[in-house]
Specification:
46% of the residues lie in helices and 15% in strands. It starts with 6 loop residues before the first helix and ends with a helix. A seven-stranded parallel sheet has the order 3-2-1-4-5-6-7, with helices on both faces. It is of the alpha/beta class and 398 residues long. It contains 15 helices and 13 strands. The protein folds into two domains: 7-188 and 374-397, Rossmann fold (3-Layer(aba) Sandwich); 192-372, Glycogen Phosphorylase B (Rossmann fold, 3-Layer(aba) Sandwich), CATH 3.40.50.2000.
Length: 398
Amino acid sequence: MTHGTSSFARRRRHHRVLQLNRAGYLGGVERVILTLAEGLRGENYETVLACPPEGGFMAMADEAGIETVPTPIERMRITLNPAVALRYPLKLLSGGRFVRDLCRRERIDVIHAHHPVGVLFARRAARELGIPLLLHVHEIPPAKPLYTLALQRALRDADRVIACSRAGRDLVASAGGRADMVEIVHNAVAPGFLISAETAKAADVGPGGPHIGVFGLLEPRKGQDILLAAASAVLEHHHDAVFWLIGGAALSDKAAYVNRLHAAAQKHPLAGHVRFAGHQSDVAAWMKAMDAVVLPSVSNESLPMALIEAMTLARPVVASRIGGTPEIVRDGETGRLVPPGDVDALAAAILDVVGPAGAGYAARAAADACARFSSDRFAGEIASIYAGLLDHSERRVR
């Protein structure tokens, strides 16, 4: 890799960015990375995606024409198994060598890590090869202790930090990050999603209604159980309402939660009114079939893409007032916000948006989301951050 080249030479050739992700399954962060990679093509940046091969993320990136490299990154999750914990230092050592060699071989100009753990694996490459290292914080407070420790360590190595919401910026500050090293860049709706939405027919959800959907992995923090608890009150006013849980189980350790959801769905008065659709690749078609989209999360929502996408498609939305959701939804104008875990408030807000006021919410939401969450804006802002890092790196080499 060549560093210290002139600014003119840098502008002439395509820069290569390593998008480093610790997970291989397809979730919200992974969709953000795909959107970014597509947008960066128009900004003179080529993407190389490095992530574990397990899960559907790498396959979807391959389909999008993104260069991918299966990478042995350990997720470094909290464990009570001492044998697993003792392997973590060795994983960091071998993984760090892998990332360094990958960056040298692929002539990487910027490393963009999407979790503090990614920085831990990339720090050796950044230090030995002189590559700028960017940390993208997708999380919000309160953070788990191990995440906080990883973030504190990562902030010592990262040259710059992107937070996708004000809540994310606050998390960085709580871990000791300087305000001048953090920039807020809101996520964007993928162009492919908008194209799909224009041509897709609404999914066939059958009779009944209103149809109320939750999009996301089936896990406790997403609050699907809160929606089912609120469903009883909604059914008192809309006897044919149907509640859709659209998304697969996150990990095997969430199986007990998923089982509880299925058990609740079989009890009166919910029996016959709850549908588990599993993972659906055509999210736009399913959103178009919904009369309202709900995000009943109880924790850890930074800037949820499902909410932004639903608004773009002119779906009335209800969301927990948590993390970055107030930066997306203007309560009483483009949708409704409720306290997380408040079953009564959630039910009342759903009844509001599926009622006569729903059309107004939907129209205002679509106009607002299309203006604020475009992929061109997203890629342009991040490309500008890359350019600043490269210029600073060049001056440092001189």
